[in-house]
Amino acid sequence: MITKRITLLLISLVTAFSLVACSTATKENDQSSMDNMKQGNMSNMNHSSSGEIPKRLKEEKNPTYKVGSEVIVKADHMEGMNGAKATVVGAYDTTAYAVSYTPTTGGAKVTNHKWVIQEEIKNADNETLKPGTEVTLEADHMKGMMSTKGTIDLAEKTTVYMIDYTPTTGGEKVTNHKWVTESELSTK
User: Which residues touch 103 (CB under 8 Å, ≥6 apart)?
Assistant: First the structure.
């Protein structure tokens, strides 16, 4: 009788420890997956670009921040961006969109990616697209973005800027970064 109780107690303890270990491992794996997804989104981002702009994109004639201006970035699209000192290398009049899409390379859905502009959306005319509109992206800001289907989350008629900046976290200078909106920059 005592042997049965001891055996039952041992089985219960082993089962309890196994469940706790699995639960902890699952939480760690879930956190690791979230961290990897965040890092993956950033590591897939083309921080620097060639500076090539879409053919239909028009320069802003009188931008708040002129080409060559020194500005402070007030956006957190990527780690080390918020608070970074930047130089404006281009200013353009367009509509900027936050979009959600699933990369053509697979992986988790990217939500609220800022920014894709009117000229980077296939067959977009000059009319501002409404949230919920399904589109085909022609931007290559991130791996798997080009030619994928997406959905407009937010539209903002604004001046967009291409900037050079050095991340506040250190590392290489980012050149010709596309895009930040006027509200994401300041002089202080």
Answer: 44, 110, 142, 143, 144, 145, 148
CB 73 within 8 A of CB 165: yes
Lowest mean pLDDT among 4-8, 14-18, 107-111: 14-18
Is 10 inside any structural domain?
Answer: no
Which residues are paired to 186 by β-bridges? 72
25 within a domain of the structure (yes/no)? no
How many structural domains does the chain have?
1
Put simply, whether the predicted model's pTM sits higher than 0.70 gets the answer: yes
Per DSSP bridges, beta strands 58-59 and 174-181 are unpaired
121/104 Cα distance (integer angstroms): 16
Encode pLDDT of 36-49 as tens digits: 333 334 444 555 67
Task: Identify the H or E element spanning 113.
Answer: strand 110-117
User: Which CATH number do you get for residue 149?
Assistant: 2.30.30.1210
Position 174 in a domain: yes
Residue 27: which H helix or E strand, with range? helix 2-43
CA distances from 6 to 13, 15, 19, 156 (A): 10, 14, 20, 69
Distance in Å from the first CA to the final CA of the chain: 78
Are the C-beta atoms of residues 177 and 67 closer than 8 Å to each other? Answer: no
